[in-house]
Amino acid sequence: MKKVILSVLVCAAVFGAQAQLINGAGSSFDYPAFTKWFEAYGKVDSSVQFNYQSIGSGGGIKNLTAQTVDFGASDAPMTDAALAAAPGKILHLPIVAGGVAIIYNLPDSPKLKLDGDTLANIYLGNITKWNDTKIAALNPGVSLPDLAIVPVHRADGSGTSFIFTDYLSSVNPAWADSVGKGSSVKWPAGIGLAAKGSEGVAGQVKQLPGGIGYAELAYADQNKIPFADMKNSSGNFISPAPDSVSAALSTAKIPDDFRFSMVNAPGANAYPISGASWVLVYEKTKNAANGPKLVAFLKWAVTEGQKISPTLDYAPLPDEVQQRELTLLGTIK
Predict the structure, then answer these.
(1) ∠148-152-157 over CA atoms, to 5°?
(2) Which of 3, 24, 182, 229 stands the most exposed, by the fewest C-beta atoms within 10 Å?
């Protein structure tokens, strides 16, 4: 939370005390992108200030539904039931696409290879030591310690958890039947630890010998935490990176409402734990003054902002998706 407060103070310094304030909340997956975008957008429009709280996708959806923020952000699309319960029509705008990195803490930081079945069994509690034969078989020649595995998962409602559990459900029937997918799931009892936010998961793994967790790639890079190459649907071990996320995104079938999944995508170079994150806005904005300012920023973010995305470990949205989103933004009243 310190990082979130700091970003608000920086925005205030850049944009000035009299700037028009736009409030957002939600995804920690998006937080690195928003931080840089708000700073860059200050050179486009110095009259607007952004206050974004990285509280998790579930919190973003809750606050948007309660109309306490101008926009929400989530790595899990809202369900039909949640959309129906909202006080107005909510639009989904893909804003970033990224890879969920599988981070770990082992002596000497060896580069590991993992597959979905092994990862699911770690989180199910069936694989408890780093030198387990299944992990060893994926990593010939790597010295694996006789060290307990400590799985770390999100404690809050999380779109990153949605992408992670969506992936595990697609590759492991036992996981799909017992835990399933969602922003908040019933994690196997007594297995590992919970942490709040991607920041919290990265922090726990960095501190815990034997720890393993999942977080958007930017958090792994920022904290200098090693992450695994994951076996994709073509049988290749792929590292999370903007190019491998773009390879996954290029195969996604994106419907008119922009709600889609891209885990375990086909393609030789696709990273299998890839996902989109959405900005959520009302088609009819509650705040008449903020609405046009927010729309202008979002038009910039889905076009000019995408040029910054690769430097932040995200994959840029394809031109065709950008144009579709500009059309949708034109319908906001």
Answers:
(1) 165
(2) 3
